[in-house]
Amino acid sequence: MENSQAPVGEGVAPLTGACMCGRVRFEISEPLIGAAYCYCKRCQRRTGTAFSATGLTRPGSFRFTSGEDLVHTYEPGDGGWNKSFCSNCGGHLLTSNPDNPDLLAIRLGALDRDPGTRALAHQFTDYAAPWFPVPDDGLPRFPERLDWSQVDLEA
Ligand SMILES: [Zn+2]
Ligand SMILES: [Zn+2]
To answer: For residue range 125-136, what is the model confidence (pLDDT) as tens digits?
Structure first.
């Protein structure tokens, strides 16, 4: 808790990250609000694996520092969040709410180092792959999209 609450400049923020080829780089100036694991089928298809680990950023704290011209965004078009990735290497970078770009979540695997934040919940657990059951780790589970208002951000 101490760690996740640390202000900018005290070891946790700013966070930096990159795609796999390194041509796209970004910076997050404030600590993440929280993080979660997503088991939806969309995350399975785009990652090729069981889930996405994603961290919600504070509005206005995210910016690209290089390679923004390489970033492509896939828009599902059905209200699902947009998915941004590096067009050169395919590395996943972030997802954002199509109706409110301030709601932007980073893929934790793209970060350069430990953000100090741990996942607070599992979401879309009804869609978890049979070959990777949701771990029994005591975190709250949401059969569909998680409701951040039901998650204890101070935990
Ligand atoms: Zn790349
Ligand atoms: Zn998902």
So the answer is: 999 999 999 999
CA–centroid distance, residue 61 to ligand 1 (Å): 21
Ligand nearest to the CA of 93: 1
What's the predicted TM-score (pTM) here? Answer: 0.86
Distance 86 CA to ligand 2 centre (A): 18
Residue 1 has pLDDT above 50, yes or no: no
Confidence of residue 155 (pLDDT cuts 50, 70, 90): low
70 CA distance to ligand 1 middle (Å): 8
Distance between alpha carbon 20 and the CA centroid of its chain, in Å?
Answer: 16
Structure tokens at 81: 């969040």
Residue ranges of domains in the chain, CATH in brackets: 15-129 (2.170.150.70)
Distances (CA, A) of 97 to 59, 76, 101, 107, 142: 12, 11, 6, 14, 19
